[in-house]
Structure formats: structure tokens, C-alpha cells
Amino acid sequence: MPVTAHPASQRAIDTSNLPWALKAMRAGFGILRRVSRGSAVRLVARLFVQPRRHGVPEREQRVLVTATRSTARHKDKDIAVYTWSPPDGDPAAGVDGGPTPTVLLVHGWEGRGGQLGAFVAPLVAQGMRVVAFDHVGHGESEGRACALPTMRDTLHMLAETVLGGPPDGVIAHSMGSFAVSLAMADGWRGTAAVYVSPPDDLLVYFGRYLELVTGSQDLLPDMIQLMEERFGEAVEEFEFRHLVETLNQPLLVLHSTDDPDVPIEGGRFVAEHWPGAEIREFDGLGHRRILRDRGTIQCAAAFLGDILESSDPSIRPRAGP
Description:
The chain has two domains: 68 residues, no CATH class; 220 residues, Rossmann fold. It is built from eleven helices and eight strands. Helix 10 links the parallel strand 7 and strand 8.
């Protein structure tokens, strides 16, 4: 069994029955830590920012082939972009006869844009333009390393070069929702959001990851310091407990009570502390099936449809055609 490279991808691994590869990794880190603590920290940090690419199932391929494909440039990497427009392609064909609203689909760690493909048809049917993409190091985009600051910066690049401004609406999954929150705090003030299985505390995931691959959280302070030096940003800036104090955009949280990757407590915390947010809980949909469930898709489409039909300009600033 391959060792996962990020906490958001750890599918409830039983620590009492670890796979041999993970046991070997823990033993190796134990030796390396004794020889050179700094080397152990650098290695675990490098693993932490290297997502694995997974195969694209046929159901996603069927949706992606209907998209208009393009690329956008983030620094020196090409980002794969997928766009679906209302059937007549008229920029004035949006809801209420206004400009076509744009909804951005944002996948999570080790995901890809096609994972949210089931949301496309209901949104397009309401007269919305839908845009999905693959983060750096994910799907068909270039690169090997990715991190939360990279995900946030990619969102800003897409808003500037592809969307014509911040999106009117966004549906984000897992770690993708955290990147969206950062973009919202940076100025996406009029974007309505649906968060599917959102996490609430990144430090918890750092610690879980370290414990999984090294057997303890002993290296956590060193890892945090290294990541702060590498990205030039304090980890406190990425703590949701502080971030949410600046956010009040319309938000709907969708989360399954049996999610093994991001426990339901994460979604409940987000909804409780985000002013005006709603949460709808589901059973039996885990962390990824929830992206294909008819009930969750209908909830998301109806929520964004209602918000984007509002005539209140403070809620519905247009992202452009």
C-alpha cells in the first residue's frame, strides 16, 4: 500500500495495522532524525507538499470532454482549465437576463477539477458559466510541488486572467475550501460559496501527518518554522479561527457524518463561526462520494441559484462575461 503524502489524503489508516511501506518510512525517519534532525525536517516537509496524481474515472472523463479546454499560466507552470457555458453562449443569457454569472469549481488535495463535474449540468442549466481547473501538481496541470499558498495564489491568477474578476459563486471541496477562504479574505468579498467537507484547523493536519509518517509529532515546531521560512508567511495567517473573523460572504456547508478524512466537526466549526452560514449534514457519503450525490448537488445548485438571482449588488457583483 503506498504511503499517502498529505493528511487530507489519509483515508482513516489503522495505526494498529500499518502497511509495511509506512512502517519502513517510520523506521527510516527514526534513524534520520537521530543522525540529522534538520535533514528529517526537510524531507518530511518535501513529502508534505508533493501530491500524488490519481487516474481519472470514466464518469469524470465524460464531463470533461464537454468542456472547452484551455491553459492559464501560474508563474512557470501551465494550469489546465475547463469551461462550460450556457447553451446559447450569449453573455447576456444569465439569470434574470443579466450578465452570465460565473461559478468556479475548486478541488482539494490530490484531487482534480473533474471530481466536481457532477455540479456542472445543474449550474449551466440555470444560465451560469462554470469553470474548473487542476491545481499545480494535480491532474493535467504542470508541477510536482503544491501547498496552500500555491493553491490560494492560483485562485487569484484565475480570477485575473480567466474569470474577469472574482467569481460570483464557488463550490470547493476539502482543502480547496481553505484556499477559497484565503482568497475571500484577500478581496473576494462578493463571492457566494458552497464548501463540501471543509477542514477547520491546518495545524491539526500537520500534526496528524507527522505522527503518521514519523511516529510522533516531535518535528512539528521545526516543520512549521521551515514552512514559514519557505513561503514567507506565518502559520497563524492560515488558522481558520482567525481567518473566519474577516469573512461574512454567503456560505453553505455540506458534510457527511462518516467522513474519515475530514471529520464532521470541521464542517460544524466552519458553519458555527462563519456569520450567517448554513450547514446540511448527510450520512453515508464519506469524503468523496458526497461530490456525486444527487442530494448534495441539488443543495449546492439551489443555494447558488438563489443567491445569484438576488438583485442586491452587495451580494451579487458580476465577475464579467
